[in-house]
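tool=predict chain=A
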Amino acid sequence: MAFEITKAVIPAAGLGTRFLPATKAMPKEMLPVVDKPAIQYVVEEAVGAGLRDVLMITGRNKNALENHFDRVGELEATLERKGDTDRLQKVNYSTDLADMHYVRQGDPKGLGHAVLRAKMHVGRESFAVLLGDDIIDPRDVLLTRMIEESGKRNASIVALLEVDPSLAHMYGVATIEETETEDVVRITGLVEKPAPGTAPSNYAIIGRYVLRPEIFEILEETPPGKGGEIQLTDALETMAAAPATGGVYGVVFRGRRYDTGDRLDYIKAIVQLAVEREDLGPDLRPWLKDFAGNLD
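tool=predict ok
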């Protein structure tokens, strides 16, 4: 059935230009957030929601992504020989995390085009899309909730976040109607990065989607939009107006989200996650207080 979801698609073909020169030779998705690459948090989220079949949409110079989720025999043997079981376990964990698959996007034609590249792998099933720039705190339920609503309504679901209206132009923004469920809205329209002051609401789409397979046919007919790219937002707007596809609903997320796509927010994400770690927080928190106090 359409809502029995087993597959996750993770677009990871971007150039990461905002993090140059760090991303000149390293994929932005491999930038460490504390001691794990950002992409691992995203794969862990998919697996935590029961999606162990993961397709990553990659591009040139992204081999490090595949290597991270593959075996590294020499490293494993060295750690085993040293008796370093703790680090060996961490290395093996990422290898055994999910059933990983990869396909290249080729031409950088936008998020919609990247999702379309998953058509052959996904087939006629509903599936989840997770963008690597957004890390959702594992203590806050989002993807599982979205899958639940997709099954209940047999519809496509996007994650929404209420943002300051002055920031709405940085996101895809939804026109919404309330439903009988407090954290779920029906989406009647979508616009990608509206001009400042013209957004229809302050409900912004963040990087989690649960999509019915009809999205592929719609994407194939979607012309280039904002920035000359094929926008997933434009295809979802078409789907929202097509009752035969079940429409589009939004789950409003009010939990902890860490944006690793912006340099300042990336630094904040590292600090926020580190201070709550049992192995780092007790030493880091007092140091941060002292450091902040000396800035005055």
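The first helix runs from residue 38 to 48. The chain has one domain: 7-261.
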